[in-house]
Write a structure and sequence with these properties.
The chain is built from 10 helices and 7 strands. It is an alpha/beta fold and about 240 residues long. It has a 7-stranded mixed beta sheet with strand order 1-7-6-5-2-3-4, covered by helices on one side. Helix 2 crosses helix 3, helix 3 packs across helix 4 and helix 6 packs parallel to helix 10.
């Protein structure tokens, strides 16, 4: 089991995390296990939305859906730019899902609570979806604020402008912040701006369907740390700090 990679000594931890006073978490596939069926449900709702919009079958639309996702950061952004889709209607529709597969994660709640400083969520989803999901996990009360796709003016990660809006609106000093993300490309700009970056991978033995461009080796220069156990990683930081 990988658990924690590139976290070798107490000195290393003190060097890279002792100055951190803002802890930023992506939502989907980061705060909850990547094997949970939440994202597949959202993904299916996106396809259904596009089927109703274009009047085509799912097979024909999947390639277009993923094209927009890769090019614009979210399928929504692609639909807004190229088809003038109403963002509010889209977000309400695709996030109308059953979250009962998620249980309260007391270990995660305790690990996040033990981190010194501010805790924020940075998501390409909606604030409503983030609150509902965090509440289902039992961690909603731990976060000072949520920066969603609406707050970002619908400019999605990994675009630099999305992070600049985040830093500005929530008064975050990237040099004193750490970001936890499941998509490697979403860590490039934050790393360049001085954030300490942590890539969260599926747990050992968990098979998660990913696009080829979503898969990272962990050796990328913009990834400081890699873990397949978020709770264990956070506990290790707190213990060594």
């Amino acid at each position: 089991m990988m658990a924690i990679q590139m976290l070798n000594t107490g000195e290393r931890v003190n060097e890279r995390f002792s100055h951190i006073d803002t802890w930023v978490f992506d939502l989907d596939n980061t705060l909850y296990p990547q094997t949970a069926d939440l994202w597949p449900k959202i993904d299916a709702r996106i396809t259904l939305f596009m089927m109703r919009l274009f009047g085509l079958d799912a097979i024909s639309l999947r390639a277009l859906q993923k094209h927009y996702y890769m090019r614009y950061g979210t399928t929504l952004r692609g639909l807004m730019v190229e088809h003038q889709v109403d963002a509010g209607h889209y977000l309400e529709y695709v996030h109308d899902i059953d979250r009962s597969c998620l249980e309260h994660n007391h270990s995660l709640a305790e690990a996040i609570a033990a981190l010194p400083g501010r805790k924020l969520i940075l998501t390409n989803g909606s604030r409503h979806h983030a609150i509902a999901t965090a509440k289902q996990l039992g961690v909603d009360h731990l976060f000072e604020d949520i920066f969603d796709i609406i707050a970002a003016d619908f400019i999605a990660k990994p675009e630099a402008a999305a992070y600049e809006r985040f830093f500005d609106k929530l008064k975050v000093d990237p040099r004193r912040a750490a970001l936890f993300e499941d998509l490697p490309r979403n860590l490039a700009v934050p790393h360049a701006r001085g954030m300490t970056t942590v890539l969260v991978l599926p747990g050992a033995g968990e098979n998660v369907e990913r696009e080829a461009w979503e898969i990272a080796s962990g050796d990328e220069p913009h990834i400081d740390f890699v873990t397949d156990d978020l709770v264990g990683f956070l506990e290790e930081i707190a213990a060594r700090a």
